[in-house]
TrEMBL record, chain A:
Entry superkingdom: Eukaryota
InterPro entries reported for this sequence: RBP11-like, RBP11-like_dimer, RNA_pol_Rpb11_13-16kDa_CS, RNAP_AC19, Rpo11-like
Protein name: DNA-directed RNA polymerases I and III subunit RPAC2
Keyword annotations: DNA-directed RNA polymerase, Nucleus, Transcription
CC per GO annotation: DNA-directed RNA polymerase complex; nucleus
Keyword hit for Signal: no
Automatic annotation (TrEMBL), chain B:
Cellular compartments per GO CC: cytosol; nucleoplasm; RNA polymerase I complex
Keyword Lipid metabolism applies: no
Pfam family, any one: RNA_pol_L
Location of the DNA-directed RNA polymerase RpoA/D/Rpb3-type domain: 61-340
Protein species of origin: Coilia grayii
Protein name: DNA-directed RNA polymerases I and III subunit RPAC1
Subcellular location: Cytoplasm, Cytosol; Nucleus
Protein family (similarity comment): Belongs to the archaeal Rpo3/eukaryotic RPB3 RNA polymerase subunit family.
PROSITE patterns (alphabetical): RNA_POL_D_30KD (PS00446)
Main location: cytoplasm
PANTHER family: DNA-DIRECTED RNA POLYMERASE, DNA-DIRECTED RNA POLYMERASES I AND III SUBUNIT RPAC1
The UniProt record lists the keyword Transport: no
Function, in words: DNA-dependent RNA polymerase catalyzes the transcription of DNA into RNA using the four ribonucleoside triphosphates as substrates. Common component of RNA polymerases I and III which synthesize ribosomal RNA precursors and short non-coding RNAs including 5S rRNA, snRNAs, tRNAs and miRNAs, respectively. POLR1C/RPAC1 is part of the polymerase core and may function as a clamp element that moves to open and close the cleft.
SMART domains the UniProt entry points to: RPOLD (SM00662)
């Protein structure tokens, strides 16, 4: 298994304890740090069906994080993760469009007095 | 003065600067934490409250307010600006000759840190182990300088500027050598150092530099030379509330506790009365809390979801472009994991 991992670098792995249900999962996010970890944790904790969400950086010289999700009421942890990612994506999209609109307004305003 | 806030709202929305420490630091508005509040994620509510105001912008710096977003996400943008927006920088230095006083490795390091004006979005990352660059992932620069005596120098001069030619090597001496079709593709891009007046080395007659450099695309997480910003930071909007009217000598002293322009004095019925004019200017030094008779008259806080961003570019891309790119990087991160979830559908 270790050999296969070296060949194609995994981006996402799932770790589950024996006998745990699908609501309690630790995801290993490769090549990520606090940037995605903390913002994603915030979005997932905003979900009332999530009982616990947290992450840890395994070691400073390993570029991966352990991202733990525990849910209530039988919601699969993958669904909570997917929802968090989609919501974070929507937020970023909205921030981007707002920012670009404001920058355009600002530039137009600066051009005006010169005419 | 702001309308008084309920205790719970204050804990949720303000960071309090106390005499012995900062209180209510962490975000606590998660579902289930506060009875009577619906803290479930609501995109419509977010859209309604969210706003951005551009305060100042020129070709290299900008300041803007981002209001109505959590620190976790604002911090992600800041971190990406510092470490994950790609740029081009010198990565490989081929030294054919260096007879100057400055050692090869020091010179190579200096060359690496020079910002290179080239749009990183038009280039690809070089593959690991790839020694030979191609036109899509490499910019080639050449530095070839030889110092000589100035034959036209005045006889009695002792000034090196008059005695020698080419004794100061500047970044403007790094000349772009196009590879493949680059001369056509980047004809009007003028690839080269952003600043021409960075001193690289000093030479004396007979000494010379003959160097070829390869610039590649990279990110600040790998090496700080790839960071596209000089600084990118945010601070929370300070909020100062006067709890009681402050008059006379106390008002004068109160004014001096804050940065200029934060507190102004108003003449009301022949008395000087302090009022908060612009709390944004405050540095949050908490000087006022050192005065026993003043510290209970004011409340110092910061608005938890009001971020004053300041972005300073190294000159490679304009700052508004950098922020847009940073947000795109976060979008790409989300997409990468959404795709991974979709493709494997985790067994």
């Amino acid at each position: 298994m270790a050999g296969a991992e070296v060949e194609k670098k995994p981006t996402l792995e799932m770790v589950q304890a024996d006998g745990a249900d699908e609501g309690c999962v630790t995801f290993v996010l490769h090549e990520e740090d606090h940037t995605l970890g903390n913002s994603l944790r915030y979005m997932i904790m905003k979900n009332p069906e999530v009982e616990f969400c947290g992450y840890s950086i395994t070691h400073p010289s390993e570029s991966k994080i352990n991202f733990r999700i525990q849910t209530r009421g039988g919601l699969p942890a993958t669904e909570a993760l997917r929802r968090g990612l989609n919501e974070l994506s929507d937020v970023s999209q909205h921030v981007l469009s707002t920012f670009q609109a404001r920058v355009q307004e600002f530039k137009d305003q600066q051009d005006e007095p010169m005419d | 003065m702001a309308a008084p806030m309920s205790n719970v709202d204050e804990i949720r929305n303000r960071v309090i600067l106390g005499e012995f420490g900062v209180r209510n630091v962490h975000t606590t508005d998660y579902p289930g934490n506060y009875p009577g509040y619906d803290d479930t994620w609501n995109f419509q509510k977010f859209k309604k409250n969210f706003r951005i105001d551009i305060v100042q912008m020129d070709e290299n710096t900008m300041e803007f307010d981002m209001v109505g977003i959590d620190a976790a996400i604002a911090n992600a943008f800041r971190r990406i600006l510092l470490a994950e927006v790609p740029t081009m920088a010198v990565e490989k230095v081929f030294i054919y000759n260096n007879t100057s006083i400055i050692q090869d490795e020091i010179l190579a390091h200096r060359l690496g840190l020079i910002p290179i004006k080239a749009d990183p979005r038009l280039f690809e990352y070089r593959n690991a182990g790839d020694e030979e660059g191609t036109e899509i992932d490499t910019i080639q620069l050449q530095l070839k300088v030889k110092c000589t005596r100035n034959p036209r120098a005045p006889k009695d001069s002792s000034d090196p500027r008059e005695l020698y030619l080419n004794h100061m090597v500047y970044s403007r001496d790094m000349k772009w050598v196009p590879i493949g079709n680059q001369a056509d593709v980047f004809a009007d891009a003028s690839i080269g150092p952003v600043h021409g007046d960075i001193l690289l080395a000093q030479l004396r007659p007979g000494q010379e530099l003959d160097i070829v450099m390869h610039c590649v695309k990279g990110i600040g997480r790998d090496h700080a030379k790839f960071s596209p910003v000089a600084t990118a930071s945010y601070r929370l909007l300070p909020e100062i509330t006067l709890l009681q009217p402050v008059e006379g000598e106390k008002a004068e002293r109160l004014k001096r506790c804050f940065s200029p322009g934060v507190i102004e004095l108003e003449n009301r019925d022949g008395k000087q009365v302090a009022k908060v004019a612009n709390s944004r200017l405050d540095t949050c030094s908490r000087e006022v809390l050192r005065y026993d008779d003043l510290k209970n008259l004011v409340k110092l806080g910061r608005v938890r979801d009001h971020f004053i961003f300041s972005v300073e570019s190294t000159g490679i891309l304009p700052p508004d472009m950098l922020v847009s790119e940073a947000i795109n990087v976060l979008l790409a991160k989300c997409q990468r994991f959404i795709n991974e979830l979709d493709s494997t559908d985790m067994d």
